[in-house]
Hints:
The complex is a heterodimer of chains A (113) and B (228).
Chain A: H1 3-7, H2 10-17, E1 23-24, H3 25-35, H4 47-56, E2 60-66, E3 72-78, H5 80-105, H6 108-112
Helix pairs in contact in A: 2-3, 2-4
Chain B: H1 2-11, H2 17-37, H3 43-54, H4 57-100, H5 110-139, H6 152-185, H7 194-227
Amino acid sequence: MEGEMLKGHLDLIVLAALSPGPAHGYAVIEEIRRRSANRFNLAEGTVYPALHRLEESGLLSSRWLVADNGRRRRVYALTRRGMRSLAQQRAVWDEFAIAIGGLLGASPRASAT
Amino acid sequence: VIPEFAEALAGRLGFDRSLSRAVRQEVEDHLWEAAAAELTDDPLEAQRRAIAKFGDPRAIAREIAAVALARSARRLGVAAMLVIAIVFIAMKARLTWYAMAHWPPLDRMAWLGAWVASIDRYAFWSAVCASVVGWLYVSRQRAPANGCVVDGRRVRRFLILCWGATSALIASVLSDGVLTSLRLAFAADLADWSIPIVSMVIEIGCAIALVVCVRGIARRATYGAQAG
């Protein structure tokens, strides 16, 4: 999928990837890959500014944990505001997808009549 | 390879040590995990692949710096209003104390007192207006823009408003200093100087604190712009 197109929806993608539960940056990227069936070809680092921005906006919270390998790890989670925002954005996206699907799905002949 | 890459990225955020340290740890953790997931027996090659997938460190640092700068700017907006409120309270406390202690009004050099007082009034309310407008302006940034970095021009305009508020506050505090000096110069009882002096120290301290804060954010904005 086109990078610019993806970037325009990055916040929604990140929020959706965190909807199953708290996760660190790498796990967020893995979740995006898994749920998109590897269709999203994002530079992995681009997810971090989005995580920071969403945290700054109050849609995510973060805390530092120590992973099994002993490294410090920052884990992000959706806040209540983030959950509400995700639900709203999902509803908007659903309507948009239906509208675009209707437009693109219509055959030229059907459109002409 | 990974520590060097993380260090290079974090180095671009050196204007904020805690942010720089946190980003370094976060990026290193990510890259080690990504390298471990690579299907190769060569650890160096795995690290190189993980770094290649991570993306351009300059672009990432620039976006993270913009988010951090917007956060600092919002905090400064609130801090500026708090500082001005403290100056107002100190000013009012001094005037109340003059009334309670029955200090005589400025008879001698009254023309100078009236002139400085009007400068003080206009300067103070200018500081209030500039700080409120600045805070409103910068707080509108809170809504996340999908995938867009925070607008650096907005922060620069906010800083202009902050410098305006700071300059006006300094003018107001200097005017207060002149008025207090006039009062003290003609005061009969030297024992009653404590409240005016303490309130002036508070006002001067607040003005200096605001200058330091605005200067700090201006420096961050400069370094943040260079992060990319």
